[in-house]
């Protein structure tokens, strides 16, 4: 569901969450989702001996939503993981159907539902870095929750983005497909990335736009370079690249993505040679690296210290 450093956040069909370190094979088992702290939200995992999907009971006890691992709702859930591999501290958060935001951090005894505590949240996307959870909400706010204490605190006065909505409007010939948030490693600043299709007459182009807020004018501005960093679309944090070119077009100042991250009806889908693409920010061109393996999973992760 998510990655941080050498670790992956995993979940199985019985709704058992765990963190897996790919290098050491160490596993951290997270608490069951069957009871959320506060006693108001329940996940009833499916029986491992049956094919029945589990049920989700919302805050009112009447908000009954069935979930199925093959459903659109489950596949569109957003998850983030941040782990300090020196201290072992970690934060996990994930959303279900955009309206329910669950979180867990090392030292807790159960999951918590952030929506239970007077938080009205509909989440487009989120990122997690340095004990902070960044939310990009449906009303285009950037909200930041600090997990460094015993309980996450939202300090709006320390959030430079709070009063300034992300208000970039596409041109009439531009059609946005997806919007994602990411944290730039070098500066700690928030980036908003748009995946879009540009149409001029009968010519179409797949593009990615990157926006950053000018902290002096408090206006969101388009940026045209990530310097010596690259971005995996949807992963939430830029990646410093010690080597500027990793081959197959993957290099610094580029965006790595999978085919579902871009418009599905574009002509590139007919002639691409793999389900992964690389967008060169400087040239605004896409390269589809040759597919070297078979995979049933459409999600790709970069893990530090591992090369294939």
TrEMBL record:
Domain (KIB1-4 beta-propeller): give its ranges.
2-280
Recorded hits in InterPro entries, A to Z, give: F-box_BR-signaling, KIB1-4_b-propeller
Q: Which domain of life is it from?
A: Eukaryota
Pfam families, per this entry? Beta-prop_KIB1-4 (PF03478)
Record protein name field: KIB1-4 beta-propeller domain-containing protein
């Amino acid at each position: 569901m998510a990655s941080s450093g050498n670790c992956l956040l995993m979940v199985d069909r019985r709704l058992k969450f765990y963190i897996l370190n790919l290098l050491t094979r160490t596993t951290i088992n997270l608490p069951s989702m069957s009871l959320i702290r506060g006693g108001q939200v329940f996940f009833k995992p499916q029986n491992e001996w049956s094919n029945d999907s589990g049920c989700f009971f919302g805050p009112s006890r009447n908000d009954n939503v069935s979930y199925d691992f093959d459903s659109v709702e489950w596949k569109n859930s957003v998850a983030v993981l941040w782990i300090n591999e020196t201290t072992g501290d970690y934060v996990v958060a994930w959303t279900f159907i955009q309206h329910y935001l669950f979180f867990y951090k090392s030292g807790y005894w159960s999951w918590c539902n952030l929506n239970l505590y007077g938080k009205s949240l509909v989440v487009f996307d989120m990122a997690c870095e340095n004990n902070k959870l960044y939310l990009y909400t449906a009303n285009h706010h950037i909200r930041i929750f600090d997990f460094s204490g015993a309980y996450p605190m939202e300090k709006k006065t320390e959030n430079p983005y709070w009063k300034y909505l992300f208000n970039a409007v596409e041109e009439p010939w531009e059609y946005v497909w997806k919007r994602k948030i990411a944290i730039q490693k070098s500066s700690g600043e928030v980036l908003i990335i748009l995946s879009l299709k540009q149409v001029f007459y009968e010519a179409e182009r797949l593009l990615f736009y990157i926006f950053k807020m000018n902290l002096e004018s408090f206006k969101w501005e388009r940026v045209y370079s990530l310097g010596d960093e690259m971005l995996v679309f949807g992963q939430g944090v830029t990646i410093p690249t010690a080597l500027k070119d990793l081959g197959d077009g993957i290099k610094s100042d580029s965006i790595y993505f999978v085919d579902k991250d871009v418009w599905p009806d574009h002509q590139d889908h007919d002639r691409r040679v793999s389900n992964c693409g690389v967008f060169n920010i400087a040239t605004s061109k896409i390269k589809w690296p040759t597919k070297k393996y078979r995979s049933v999973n459409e999600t790709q992760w970069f893990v530090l210290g591992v090369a294939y």
